[in-house]
Amino acid sequence: MSDFVFAPPPQPAVSVRGTSALFPARRVYCVGRNYAAHAVEMGHDPNREPPFFFMKTPDALLPDGGVFPYPPETSDVHHEIEMVVALSGGGRDVPEEDALSLVFGYAVGIDFTRRDLQAEAKKLQRPWEVGKAFDHAAPCGPIARASEIGHPVKGAVTLDVNGARRQAGNLDQLIWTVPEMISILSRLFELQPGDLIFSGTPAGVGPVVRGDRLEGQVEGVGSLSITVE
């Protein structure tokens, strides 16, 4: 007999490309302002300042081909296309030179943001959760295994909305590389298998409205399609 007072919710998971296997998601970390051009468009210094992190909830993951319900209490939801890093290993104080050994694979994700609520939180010096960690706010496509694609360090990162290019960047423009972000993050949290890291978005973030069709790609990694409803 279960000791839970009610049945636990299903385990959030992401599909693994080319298999029937599922990647069980534990935590969803996000790196803020990790492309210089995006830092500039958000009104910040593009120089290499220390990275910062925020989190989304694993149950906010939305699969490729999914429908993103326009969230409540906002009129300014923005798209942010990103490469996602999926970990199959963990630890504390991981040396940068060992960081890639923790990586299971990579995927394409979108960090949806209630920009108006985030801006209000910033103004009041409050946490960002209402702007970042809401329902369905973390679409993520199938994970491509590193054993198949390697560890991408360059490649176009793009997002089209209704067929028009909105965002364009390249992985070689990341301010903090994947090994660096894993190593720094492991000083703050004990990383574990199942952790996902949204690695930051290039310039061009902007609003979505109901009916929009979003098509994101990371060259060498994969793609992601989402419809706003």
Task: Describe the protein's architecture and organization.
The protein is of the alpha+beta class and 229 residues long. The protein has one domain: Fumarylacetoacetase-like, C-terminal domain (Fumarylacetoacetate hydrolase, domain 2, Alpha-Beta Complex). The chain has helices at 36-41, 115-123, 129-132, 146-149, 178-188; strands at 13-15, 22-24, 28-31, 53-56, 61-63, 67-68, 77-79, 81-87, 103-110, 113-114, 138-140, 144-145, 156-161, 164-170, 196-198, 206-207, 213-218, 222-228. The protein is globular. The protein starts with 12 loop residues before the first strand and ends with a strand. The model has no long low-confidence stretch (mean pLDDT 95).
- Radius of gyration over C-alpha positions, nearest whole angstrom: 17 Å
What proportion of the residues form beta strands (DSSP E)?
25-35%
Name the CATH superfamily assignment: Fumarylacetoacetase-like, C-terminal domain
Count of extended strands: 18
| H/E topology pattern | EEEHEEEEEEEHHEEHEEHEEEE
The proportion of residues forming helix, as a percent range, comes to 10-25%
CATH architecture assignment: Alpha-Beta Complex
Count of helical segments? 5
Structural class: alpha+beta
Q: CATH class, anyone? A: Alpha Beta
Low-confidence stretches: none
What is the overall shape?
globular
CATH topology: Fumarylacetoacetate hydrolase, domain 2
Largest sheet: 6 strands, mixed
How many discrete domains? 1
Spatially, the strands of the biggest sheet line up as 4-3-15-8-9-12
End-to-end separation in angstroms reads 41 Å
Let me know the average pLDDT: 95
